Amino acid sequence: MKKLIPLFAVVCMLSLIGCTSLVSSLTSQMANDLAETILNSNDIDTVREGIPAYLLLIDSFLQRSPDDVDLLIAAATLNGSFSIFANPERAGLLNQKSLDYASQAACLTSKAMCDHASVAFVEFEQRISELKQKDIGAAYALGVAWAGWIQTHSDDWNAIGQLGRVKLLMEKVIELDETWDNGGAHLYLGGLETLLPATMGGKPEKGRTHFERSLSISDGKYLMTRVVYAEQYARLVFDRELHDRLLQEVIDADPDVPGMTLTNLMAQQRARELLADSNDYF
Fold it and tell me: What is the per-residue pLDDT across 222-280, written as a single tens digit (0 to 9) for each?
């Protein structure tokens, strides 16, 4: 992987703290470069086969710099991303690691996000309301990792009961900067609002608004938004015309977009599967 091969012969003439800070800076950049390279890859199989080695590399970086927020966020992102390639048991382990790393990064960034799952909901709500712009990266990473963890524990009502906290977190991200990660918070909220039909407490139309806003912010280039929109909203309300149109748009699109290529290719794979199943579903 580019920028990961060079061996660094750094002679620290500074104090131990200064040396640790320098190494921390270097490893954080390497981790970010690694994540960027993976996201820009057009070879899903190579990424699937190679990510386990990358995860071990990130873990080795964290041995030296356990409190590096950027490195923790990169580790959380990589572990959560790889979980989609894993079997259910392994996905659970990876999502737990992702949540652990994201939780540590969030707590280091702002004490308001410490003990996020155990503090009383009213206090959690108050804490989240006090987050600032500087906290948005860690808050979003925590929300994404938390949502992934809940998904792998969907048979546990104690886990499901934490969805309200994730929604609060993502709503705060939108308040601070709705364009963060190409409108990713809108995509996650759209998914959360369409988990259930309206008759069971879901808010599908609110979810649709979030999906549309996410598409607008990313200029339609993040193809996974259309896939989730089709699978969770269009199927939920039995709108086949919308369902098939969204999926065909994904299939016809150019997936090669900086920072989105790998996810877009995966979105096209899923779109073909869903479209092939359309007759049976509707």
Answer: 999 999 999 999 999 999 999 999 999 999 999 999 888 888 998 999 999 999 999 99
Query: What tokens does 252 get?
Result: 């016809």
Tokens describing residue 177: 């900067």
Alpha helices in the chain (DSSP H): 16-39, 44-64, 69-82, 88-109, 121-129, 136-152, 157-160, 163-177, 184-193, 204-217, 224-228, 240-252, 261-276, 278-281
CA dihedral for 212, 217, 223, 228, sign (positive or negative): negative
Backbone φ and ψ of 166, nearest 5°: -65, -40
Cα separation, 233 vs 191, in Å, equals 8
pTM of the predicted protein model: 0.84
Alpha carbon distance 102, 139 (integer Å): 8
In 3D, which of 42, 44, 45, 33 has the Cα closest to residue 1? 33
pLDDT tens digits along 105-161? 999 999 999 999 999 999 999 999 999 999 999 999 999 999 988 888 878 888 889
Q: Record the tokens describing residue 107, joined without a space.
A: 């707590």
Instruction: Answer yes or no: are the C-beta atoms of 129 and 168 closer than 8 Å.
Output: no
